[in-house]
Write a structure and sequence with these properties.
The complex is a heterodimer of chains A (about 250) and B (about 325). Helix content of chain A is about 30%, strand content about 30%. Chain A has helices at about 35-50, 70-80, 95-110, 125-135, 190-195, 235-245; strands spanning about 1-5, 10, 35, 55-65, 80-85, 110-115, 140-150, 150-160, 160-170, 170-175, 200-205, 215-220, 230. In chain A, strands 9-8-7-10-6-1-4-5-11 form a nine-stranded mixed beta sheet, with helices on both faces. Chain B is about 25% helix and about 30% strand. Chain B starts with a strand and ends with a helix. Chain B is globular. The longest helix of chain B has 16 residues, at about 300-314. Classes of the chains: A alpha/beta (about 250), B alpha/beta (about 325). Chains A and B meet through helix 3, helix 4, strand 7, strand 8 and strand 9 of A and helix 3, helix 4, strand 5, strand 7 and strand 8 of B. The complex binds flavin-adenine dinucleotide and adenosine monophosphate (AMP). Flavin-adenine dinucleotide sits at the interface of chains B and A.
């Protein structure tokens, strides 16, 4: 069974994000870019499943500009067998991404797609579920453990009230949560070796799906700022402030 | 301009997120129907019908809706979609799982985590862990959205809507519920609590978490939260995690104990009315967000605070 892992190139989780003063978006100039952290977890899981024998091939795919090659190189170094770049210089929304992924799933005969539960830039959290819907597949979102059992997968999910375990028939879509695994350390030899591997490339426009944006971003704003607080010296001071000043006790 | 709102419930009780998401829905338009889906959910539907401003409660009670698996919920919503131009759900585990399926099959782009309604097609939503706010206008004929419930006050329970039964025609199920581990506690629910006490990596063990953070929460009648670190380390359950990828809370009082204040954590609590931080490092970023900061060792300060509060409360 082939597994597909979509990897989004996003601003690094440590980067300081600033809104452009004219409200036209966030300023990404000189910002370190990385693979979306959840996607690295998704990839690690796919590689582990291949190592355990349930998956035959792991294909990493990134959709975006030519710069997405860097996250695909890292994916190859972590253990993906193949990497595909679907080129587009447009800003694509989750729905368009899901449609592009669905065409790839069909073309490659994928049996399991593991995505991140959300991209930490747009915080949409939609693509995996949309992909599952478009393919008519079941889904297991927010996975914290995945076990393949022949024609199905047993997945434990992190849900609002605690943990939920479900079983999904394969083919299926799984989205990775933080505690699914800790991605392995990738050493220099693996990085060097990954540089030799080819990255296949296709053009998003030629995939035969509509890519047009449905949402118009009218403006991007700074979040409201909190007014500066005070430092208190003792627990007694704190209790006084909470009772008399803040009135929350 | 009819709106369908998916109710959030735990199988027996309607949860507070429904009343909050309803507030958002009522800002979009006045014809709001609430869909209550599940098995044996008559009492939940009754509670939903009591929320102010609801037009009709649609009750779908079926074996195949037990455990509210997103495939079934999405199929049910799609069955009803025709009559609505907005379909909304609270941004809970269920809403986040089911609504993108609905959106994809209606060929619309979902708007996730709405924090303000500016017009029926225009919304505010946070991006980059809340470091920026986008104002987006949808050009789709129908809108599908999830609502960040901490941004809306719950509507009152002063309504009396009619309840209609809807039939659910299930397709062959490709996913099955196996089991659930839910933290049972008498404590208030994290997302709805007036006070939240959260602990971070500095607690170091489950026992310390219990004797410091939970003990303080107990004297305050507060919910307990955590940063990612204690959850990863296994000394706090996953459903306590507050942050970009955990729960978003906006209580009246948030007390952060031994938490550094990474943006991913702050994303989940910075809308609290009053924030208290207790941290041994005077330069910890959490102090930039705190209304009241106390520098020092939590193992000294938290028991003192717990004792002082126990005294004032008794
Ligand atoms: C994709 C992604 C998503 C994430 N999502 C979340 C999320 O949803 N929620 C979340 O919380 N994090 C999230 N994180 C993790 C986040 O980046 C931080 O790593 C995490 O919040 C740190 O937890 P902490 O503050 O408890 O630990 P630390 O950063 O280690 O801070 C511990 C603090 O305790 C203080 N301290 C130590 N000893 C004492 C003492 N005796 N008394 C008082 N203070 C003491 C230290 O000064 C320090 O400030 C995410 C990260 C990634 C990459
Ligand atoms: N441009 C992209 N390229 C590859 N994968 C993507 C892209 N956008 C989203 N994804 C995948 O979809 C997941 C969820 O993204 P989102 O729905 O945008 O929060 C990510 O974690 C990725 O696995």
């Amino acid at each position: 069974m082939k597994a597909l892992v979509p990897i989004k190139r996003v601003a690094d989780f440590n980067a300081r994000i600033r809104v452009r003063p004219d409200g036209t978006g966030v300023d990404l100039a000189n910002i370190k870019m990385s693979a979306n952290p959840f996607d690295e977890i998704a990839l690690e899981q796919a590689v582990r499943l291949r190592e355990a024998g349930g998956v035959s091939e792991v294909i990493a795919v990134s959709i975006g500009s030519a710069q997405c090659r860097d996250v695909l190189r890292s994916a190859l170094a972590l253990g993906a067998d193949r990497a595909i770049l679907i080129r587009s210089d447009l800003t694509l929304e989750a729905l368009a991404i899901a449609k592009l992924l669905a065409t790839l799933v069909r073309a490659e005969g994928i049996g399991l797609a593991i995505l991140g539960k959300q991209a930490i830039d747009d915080d949409a959290g939609q693509t995996g579920q949309m992909l599952a819907a478009l393919l008519g597949w079941p889904q297991a979102t927010f996975a914290s453990s995945v076990e393949l059992q022949g024609a199905s997968a047993k997945v434990t999910r992190e849900v609002d009230g605690g943990l939920q375990t479900i079983e999904v028939n394969l083919p299926a879509v799984i989205t990775a949560d933080l505690r699914l695994n800790t991605p392995r350390f990738v050493g220099l030899p693996a990085i060097m070796k990954a540089k030799q591997k080819p990255i296949e490339e296709r053009d998003a426009e030629s995939c035969g799906v509509s890519l047009g944006a449905r949402l118009c971003v009218l403006r991007t704003e700074e979040p409201p700022t909190r007014k500066a607080g005070v430092m208190v010296k003792t627990v007694a001071d704190l209790v006084d402030k909470l009772r008399l000043e803040a009135g929350v006790l | 301009m009819a709106i369908l709102l998916l109710a959030e419930h735990d199988g027996s009780v309607l949860l507070d997120q429904t009343a909050r998401a309803l507030a958002a829905a009522l800002e979009i338009g006045s014809d709001v129907d609430i869909l209550v889906a599940g098995k044996d959910i008559g009492a939940v539907a009754e509670t939903a019908a009591g929320l102010a401003g609801v037009r009709t409660v649609l009750k779908a009670d079926a074996d195949d809706l037990d455990h509210q698996l997103p495939e079934a919920i999405a199929a049910l919503v799609l069955q009803l979609a025709e009559g609505y131009d907005t379909i909304a759900a609270p941004a809970t585990s269920l809403g986040k799982s089911a609504m993108p399926r609905v959106a994809a099959l209606l060929d619309v782009m979902q708007i996730s985590d709405v924090i303000a309604v500016l017009a029926p097609d225009t919304f505010k939503r946070p991006i980059y862990a809340g470091n920026a706010i986008q104002i987006v206008q949808s050009s789709d004929a129908r809108r599908v959205l999830t609502v960040r419930t901490s941004a809306f006050a719950p509507v009152a329970a002063t309504g009396a809507a009619a309840i209609e039964t809807v039939a659910f025609a299930p397709a062959e199920a490709r996913s099955r519920f196996i089991e659930e581990q839910r933290g049972k506690s008498a404590r208030p629910e994290l997302g709805a609590a007036r006070i939240v006490v959260s602990g971070g990596r500095a607690l170091g063990s489950a026992e310390n978490f219990q004797t410091r953070v939970v003990a303080l929460a107990d004297v305050l009648g507060a919910a307990v939260g955590a940063s990612r670190a204690p959850v990863d380390e296994g000394y706090a359950p996953n459903d306590w995690q507050v942050g970009q990828t955990g729960k978003i809370v906006a209580p009246e009082l948030y007390i952060a104990v031994g938490i550094s204040g990474a943006i991913q954590h702050v994303a989940g609590m910075k809308d609290a009315k009053t924030i208290v931080a207790i941290n041994s490092d005077a330069n910890a970023p959490i102090f930039q967000y705190a209304d009241y900061g106390l520098v020092g060792d939590l193992f000294e300060l938290v028991p003192q605070l717990t004792a002082a509060l126990a005294q004032t409360r008794s």
